[in-house]
Design brief:
Blueprint (H helix, E strand, L loop, with lengths): L11 H23 L3 E3 L2 E14 L5 E13 L1 H33 L6 H33 L7 H50 L22 H45 L1
Antiparallel strand pairs: 1-2, 2-3
Helix pairs in contact: 2-4, 3-4
Length: 272
């Protein structure tokens, strides 16, 4: 009886090449199905093939794939809006360019700020309101001390006057510090104003699309062919059939050998 031969193992290189070809076909098919021309109130979007692109795969073969051009066309009304928007953005960009020269001149001078001048300015400004209030508080304190029997030149008098004077000094110092901070912030804001205007002009000069052309279109998903898996499954099935045949052959041979042994034993017994 002739022994069956095991199935040959699949060639991995040939399988990979076939799988790559099927994957490419799937990708091209999916691209062609999804490139749907669109027509909407803003205009149209269309696709045209403009040739092919080639590349060399891992096996050294030259592969050609189609190349397309996507063209978007506005309606006359949307084109007019787009042109006007482009013109406005161009004007803003030109103004920003001119303003940048002025900003350069401003930044060429170091930022200067005098703490003492700011403190003096704040003190002079605040004294018009604070000085009369302090004078009223001092007069009220003198009257209260005299009415309490405390006379000038006594220790109690001097202590109360010193406390009042310290309070006035703290009030004046706080006024100077607050005024200095405010003056610094105002000077810094004045210096930064040209920069802020330039930044606003630059942000407003960005090129943008006045209308959203792309609308929701159905997207087709083409399932790829698992060629490598199919080859492997086919090989597994052939191997299982081969193993089953070998098992059946082993069982038949065992039965023949058993039958031959039984006949031989019977002949020996008959001879006795």
């Amino acid at each position: 009886m002739k022994s069956p031969k095991p199935p040959p193992a699949p060639d991995p290189v040939a399988t990979a090449q076939a799988q790559a070809g099927l994957n490419q076909s799937t990708a091209v098919t999916q691209q062609l199905l999804n490139m749907t021309d669109q027509v909407n109130p803003w205009g149209t979007t269309s696709y045209q093939q403009n040739g092919q692109t080639s590349f060399t795969d891992s096996n050294g073969n030259t592969v050609f794939v189609p190349r397309f051009t996507q063209t978007t066309t506005f309606t006359p009304e949307q084109q007019a809006i787009f042109d006007a928007s482009q013109g406005a953005q161009t004007n803003l960009a030109n103004i920003a360019q001119e303003q940048s020269g002025r900003v350069q001149e401003t930044l060429s001078d170091p930022f200067q700020f005098s703490n003492q001048d700011a403190a003096d300015w704040a003190f002079d400004l605040g004294q018009s309101r604070i000085a009369p209030q302090q004078q009223q508080q001092e007069a009220a304190l003198r009257d209260r001390l005299i009415n309490s029997g405390i006379r000038p030149g006594t220790q109690a008098w001097d202590s109360e006057m010193a406390r009042m004077t310290q309070g006035f000094n703290d009030q004046n110092n706080q006024l100077a510090l607050t005024g200095r901070s405010q003056a610094f912030a105002e000077n810094l804001a004045t210096r930064n104003q040209p920069l802020n205007e330039l930044t606003a002009l630059l942000s407003g000069s960005q090129v943008s699309n006045p209308a959203q052309m792309s609308s929701a279109t159905p997207q087709v998903g083409v399932g790829g062919v698992d060629y490598a898996g199919m080859v492997q499954n086919n090989y597994n099935n052939q191997m299982q059939n081969y193993q089953a045949q070998m098992a059946n052959r082993g069982g038949m041979l065992g039965g023949l050998f058993g039958l031959a042994g039984s006949l031989g034993g019977a002949a020996i017994r008959g001879g006795f």
